[in-house]
Amino acid sequence: MKLAPKTLCLLAVLATPALALERILDLDGTWESIACELRPQAGQDGVAPWYLKRSITFTPGRIDAHFSTYADATCSAPLLELKFGGDVNVLGASGVAEGARNVDLIVNDYLTITPQMEGFAGFLNSAEAGACGTTEWSVGIEQDVFETGCTVMGVAANAPAIEYEVLHVSAGHLYFGARPVDGLPLAQPVDRPTALQMPLKRLEGGLTQKVGADDLRVPKHVEIVLFEQADGADPAEVRAFFETITQKMNQNDTLLYRTVGQGEDGTWLCVNYWTSRPDMETLNAQAQSWANEFATMGELVKPSSFRLTGYDTGL
Fold first, then answer.
1. What are phi and psi of 62, to 5 degrees?
2. Using CB atoms within 10 A of its CB, is residue 26 exposed (0-12), middle (13-18) or buried (19+)?
3. By C-alpha distance, which of 269, 268, 266, 272 is closest to 287?
4. Are 195 and 96 spatial neighbours (Cβ–Cβ below 8 Å)?
5. What pLDDT, on a 0 to 100 scale, did the predictor assign at position 198?
6. Is-above-0.70 flag for pTM?
7. 36 three-class SS
8. Rounded distance, CA 235 to CA 229, Å?
């Protein structure tokens, strides 16, 4: 992949704990929806469609989630923002897919709601005083309802909720279990999913991923890049610069994984795993127009230092 003009290297923060004999579930990092998602939602009038986009961050033993929900199938009419946080218990293996694990997600820290349209604010205000937040609801104003509950949304007061999930990480994507078609929550161990739903893509964090035939998508081309940072450049600034490129690259689903490190001699190593060489070349061509993202690159890296090699994996 080209970087003004040779190679563009997306950086990620890597962790290197010892691996267990079985394949680990590498949740740590931030994950986001790849498209507008559809969920069945149980209500007073039966099952209705629920449209949303998700952003979920996992740290060891913890989840922090942000759901943006919409009134339409194109996710263009915001309805409400829902945020929650709590504990994560990773359990035994699941039969849904090789490497998948049963996981309990426990909402026991906070649960906030932000209405994004007047109609939904009015719906929340239909609850009895003190039964859904502490003040009157208005558009764009967030309230934490963990302590008060929210009767009109079926949220009990001061009651941690457990969701009995299945999670699977493969090829830089995170799969949750498929939702029940009746729209009911995964409130009991017996409700734990037996299939997977549309995945989330990794934005940041995580370990170097295992590459093998058990992954849903495997790389067909590997690219290795070595380069040096500019004299006087701060490594943290180099990383920060490439993080801006991350946001750009996450709009494309052809770079499966990337690992980055800086050696003791100061040389940077970047290994890119691509769906195919043609996919890589297509994205290279698109990157030539990213003038704003590369405006300060000359201050951070030495353009003449880039050394690039590529390999077809035959997978």
1. -145, 150
2. buried
3. 272
4. yes
5. 86
6. no
7. coil
8. 8
